[in-house]
Design brief:
With about 230 residues, the protein is α+β, with helices and mostly antiparallel strands. It contains 8 helices and 5 strands. The protein has a 5-stranded antiparallel beta sheet with strand order 4-3-2-1-5, sandwiched between helices. A hairpin with a 5-residue loop joins strand 2 and strand 3. The radius of gyration is 17 Å and the shape is globular. The two termini are about 30 Å apart.
Length: about 230
């Protein structure tokens, strides 16, 4: 929540308590966009794998028009393991980032590349055009983003699409399956599931053809309470 006057981090089911407000105060999700880009490698030349490796994220717009929220899936503990350095904050290159100062002690541990977590970051832009301007500031092989794409945008057509609803969907999804796999369950497959679920579109695929090979949509996992399923 870096757009708040006092930035903060909330994790796990605490987010549902944090977002428990009167219905009329709970913002509604209005638009959703698929984002894809390669990571900049700096002075290091891109490998053949780098050239086909794209990170995907979901950009959500809200009816309050104050900010957007980026949703992405990554390695469990990645934010803490990288000392709070994220591409979605202007201060990523500072010695100590605002995000790192906000992390709870239990959130800082070495990442696990076979397990995953969903991350949601409020970003101070109000729509896709503002987000594209943010990307442009950090585009280039010596910066953060390479070859950005915006292949899918749509209105959110869910009946229940408040901020608290979206948080509950994300918790359901990650608690049903916490694994991470480069081919079967990763940032691109997650974002394809998000796009299809929020927009009500059955034909959404992961961005890159390589990740489409083994993709099986798991959109149903957003809907069902994970506590009602066995381990």
């Amino acid at each position: 929540r870096q757009t708040d006057p006092e930035p903060s981090v909330v994790y796990g089911t605490d987010i549902l308590r944090e977002f428990k407000v009167p219905e009329e105060e709970d913002p509604l999700c209005t638009r959703v966009h698929m984002i894809a880009h390669r990571y900049a490698t700096g002075q290091k030349a891109e490998t053949p794998k780098d050239k086909v490796s794209y990170h995907s994220a979901a950009l959500l717009e809200w009816d309050h028009g104050k900010h957007c929220t980026i949703f992405e899936i990554g390695w469990l503990g990645g934010i803490g393991g990288y000392r709070g350095k994220t591409n979605w904050s202007h201060d990523k290159d500072e010695k100590e980032t605002t995000l790192y100062r906000c992390l709870k002690p239990e959130m800082v541990f070495p990442w696990k590349d076979s397990m995953s977590e969903i991350r949601a970051t409020d970003i101070p832009v109000k729509d896709l055009e503002g987000f594209k301007q943010y990307i442009a500031q950090y585009e280039g092989h010596d910066k953060r983003f390479v070859d950005p794409h915006y292949p899918f945008s749509h209105d959110v057509r869910l009946t229940y699409r408040s901020r608290r609803n979206i948080a509950a969907y994300m918790l359901n999804y990650i608690r049903r399956d916490r694994t991470y796999s480069e081919m079967r369950r990763n940032c691109q497959t997650f974002v394809a599931d998000v796009m299809g679920f929020l927009a009500g579109k059955r034909d959404v695929q992961p961005f890159h053809p390589i990740n489409q090979v083994q993709y099986r949509n798991q959109r149903h996992m957003f809907l069902y309470d994970s506590h009602m399923y066995g381990e």
